[in-house]
Amino acid sequence: MIEGLPVLDAHMHLDPMGNPKMALKRFIESGGSHLLIVHKPYDHIETPDIGGYERSFGVTIDMCKMANSLGVKAWCVIGPYPGELPHLANRIGPEKAEELHIEALSRAFIHIENGDALGIGEIGRIHFPVSQELQGSCDRILEHALEKASDLECPVVLHTESLHSNPNLMEHLAKMIDRTGMDRYRVIKHYSGPDLIDPSANLGISVSLQCRRETLKILLGSENDHLLETDFIDDAHRPNIVMPPDTVPKKIRWAHELGLLDTSRHERLMIDLPEKVLGVDM
Fold first, then answer.
1. Against a cut of 0.85, is the pTM above it?
2. How far apart are the C-alpha atoms of 168 and 154, rounded to whole Å?
């Protein structure tokens, strides 16, 4: 904690083939206290069938349990990663690939109902060039997830392409969210930057900002509040990618020291906002 205040990293991956205990140690020693651990594909687990997804989800749930055992208050979100769909479509065919992702979502929702996971993520759209057919498949999978998440009132973390590659992305997502009855603020577009800080750009969809100094300065100079993340992937071959696991607490401390952040704004960012968006007790 920083001066007794909670610090949440809203998007971190942990991997048993990486060094998750060291990542957590760095996070805690720098002042971090709360984590949203996000599912990712694991190199040591193939997912050509539903059994693979069950095993993979189990790893993320276990990583979350480990984090809690080491003193972090952690929650996890699980779901089929959209970036896996092209390879899966090549392997078993596009229709079966889509069906498998929907079945994987069904299993993920069972874990949510059982209390093993907080929500769904990261799911959504493919961030690299693919056919319209594959992106259409992603949209159908995502809309299915949003409908069920709306029923369960759980958060959904999105992986998507950038605004640069798709300027109409937020309008597309907003329409889809509204069709399902999901509250826009319960849907989180992760890996976001300053261009989505203003409500006119994010359209009421929650965003999780990469916790970079310039981005944090822009955020704190506005009246808008957003989640902060590292997207640390815990890859032994690429340490500190995407950002080091101690980044959020270090940047928050830096903002306090420069007078950019006071206790009241800190509580808005790290207590009020996560409780509203994620539905957790900070």
1. yes
2. 26
**Cα separation, 227 vs 206, whole angstroms:** 8
Residue 61 lies inside a defined structural domain of this protein: yes
Q: What is the pLDDT of residues 203-221, one digit of tens each?
A: 999 999 999 999 999 999 9
Query: DSSP letters of 179-197?
Result: HHT--GGGEEEEEE-GGGS
Q: Check which CATH number belongs to the domain holding 274 and give it.
A: 3.20.20.140
Structure token pair of residue 33 = 């206290």
Q: What is the pLDDT of residues 140-191, one digit of tens each?
A: 999 999 999 999 999 999 999 999 999 999 999 999 999 999 999 999 999 9
Within a domain: 210:
yes
* Domain span including residue 72: 8-278
Cβ atoms of residues 77 and 38 within 8 Å: yes
In contact, 14 and 25? CB cutoff 8 Å: no
